[in-house]
């Protein structure tokens, strides 16, 4: 494995870092949090001009055709500044599900718009009390003569209020098979409600009340949507881990800078071993998790089994981010617990990122299945 970045990769990383620093500092995040949609449209348009939405989409569909490592580098910087964009859910999850579905008509119809950012697609899978077992979903897609009827409720759907379409996973009540449908956000029978979350990120509850979906928007054939979803999530785990690494790096820098400025007993508090040692341990953890992310991305880009490495990266990176953000709160003392200070912006997101998109318990089971049971991994 080559641990160093190429000149092009380093340039990509620096370009995104500078862009986020200039266009989306933490003050911009605070303004975005106060908005109903929680979506920085102008910043998203800038990302689209740079081709970021299509970074991991094949060139024949208008994307840049880069690898997962490049995508991880982008999200490391987006995570560093806690930028709320639909890139993960639209350009990674939705695009991967479509690409893996084997539905050729879907590829040519949906991927070009996702690649240039003009078409935002979110994914609706989570349901109350169901966990990650797709076969236990309550949402039903009942076949009709022409199309199907969708009923059910999905929770914590990101960016649903600004998405053009919703990629919904549901069960066929007649066969029990898991299938997918792409539903227009403004379709009759679709109602969207903002859900409060610890991170104040744009998540929504969507109710589908006998929504009629056309046949051209329903996954047909013998495609295994469960396998497509699993593959898309494994790819997404690497991106989410990179995001957590970037965020942890930033809160560590903020905390280190504060420790050098804040004085107690006539000297900077960073000079006390009780703080200096914790900050030193944290940077070791951050670098370790960054290596896990790069390793998982490298394995996928080089055609090697990567699912276990991806699960480990997400498990470790999100747990690490949780610890480092908590350390940031403690270093800032009483100030760190106030909403006026920046550490809470990271601390609130750390726990939510750890819980969403396969929590620790599920990841541990997945790692055990892929390593102890020695099941063949999907590449």
TrEMBL record:
Name of the protein in its database record: Acyl-CoA/acyl-ACP dehydrogenase
Please give the SUPFAM superfamilies that the UniProt record associates with this protein.
Acyl-CoA dehydrogenase C-terminal domain-like, Acyl-CoA dehydrogenase NM domain-like
> GO MF terms on file?
acyl-CoA dehydrogenase activity; flavin adenine dinucleotide binding
Q: Which domain of life is it from?
A: Bacteria
Could you say which protein family the record assigns here? Belongs to the acyl-CoA dehydrogenase family.
The record's listing under InterPro entries reads: Acyl-CoA_Oxase/DH_mid-dom, Acyl-CoA_Oxase/DH_mid-dom_sf, AcylCo_DH-like_C, AcylCo_DH/oxidase_C, AcylCoA_DH/ox_N, AcylCoA_DH/ox_N_sf, AcylCoA_DH/oxidase_NM_dom_sf
Give the UniProt keywords, A-Z: FAD, Flavoprotein, Oxidoreductase
What cofactor is this protein dependent on?
Answer: FAD
| Domain Acyl-CoA dehydrogenase/oxidase N-terminal per the UniProt entry, residue ranges | 6-117
Acyl-CoA dehydrogenase/oxidase C-terminal domain: residues covered: 239-352
One family name in Pfam for this protein: Acyl-CoA_dh_M
> PANTHER family, alphabetically?
ACYL-COA DEHYDROGENASE, ACYL-COA DEHYDROGENASE FADE28
Give the Acyl-CoA oxidase/dehydrogenase middle domain ranges: 127-211
């Amino acid at each position: 494995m080559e641990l160093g970045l190429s000149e092009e990769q380093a340039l990509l990383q620096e370009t995104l870092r500078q862009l986020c620093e200039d266009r989306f500092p933490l003050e911009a995040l605070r303004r975005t949090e106060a908005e109903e949609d929680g979506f920085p449209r102008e910043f998203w348009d800038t990302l689209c001009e740079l081709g970021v939405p299509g970074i991991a989409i094949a060139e024949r569909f208008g994307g840049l055709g880069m690898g997962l490592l490049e995508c991880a580098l982008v999200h490391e910087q987006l995570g560093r500044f806690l930028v709320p964009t639909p890139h993960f859910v639209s350009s990674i999850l939705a695009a991967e599900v479509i690409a893996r579905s084997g539905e050729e008509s879907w590829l040519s119809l949906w991927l070009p718009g996702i690649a240039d950012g003009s078409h935002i697609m979110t994914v609706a899978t989570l349901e109350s009390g169901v966990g990650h077992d797709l076969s236990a979903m309550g949402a039903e897609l009942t076949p009709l003569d022409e199309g199907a009827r969708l009923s059910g409720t999905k929770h914590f759907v990101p960016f649903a209020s600004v998405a053009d379409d919703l990629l919904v996973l549901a069960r066929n009540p007649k066969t029990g098979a898991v299938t997918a449908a792409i539903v227009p956000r403004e379709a009759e029978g679709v109602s969207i409600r903002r859900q409060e979350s610890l991170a104040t990120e744009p998540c929504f509850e969507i109710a589908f009340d006998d929504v009629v979906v056309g046949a051209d928007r329903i996954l047909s054939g013998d495609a295994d949507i469960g396998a497509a979803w699993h593959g898309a999530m494994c790819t997404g785990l690497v991106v989410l881990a990179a995001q957590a690494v970037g965020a942890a790096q930033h809160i560590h820098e903020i905390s280190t800078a504060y420790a050098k400025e804040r004085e107690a007993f006539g000297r900077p508090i960073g000079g006390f071993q009780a703080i200096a040692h914790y900050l030193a341990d944290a940077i070791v953890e951050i670098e370790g998790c960054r290596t896990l992310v790069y390793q998982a991305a490298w394995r996928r880009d080089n055609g090697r089994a990567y699912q276990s490495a991806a699960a480990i990266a997400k498990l470790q990176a999100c747990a690490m981010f949780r610890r480092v953000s908590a350390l940031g709160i403690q270093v800032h003392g009483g100030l760190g617990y106030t909403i006026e200070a920046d550490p809470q912006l990271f601390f609130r997101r750390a726990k939510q990122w750890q819980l969403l998109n396969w929590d620790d318990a599920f990841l541990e089971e997945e790692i055990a299945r892929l390593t102890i049971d020695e099941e063949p991994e999907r590449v």
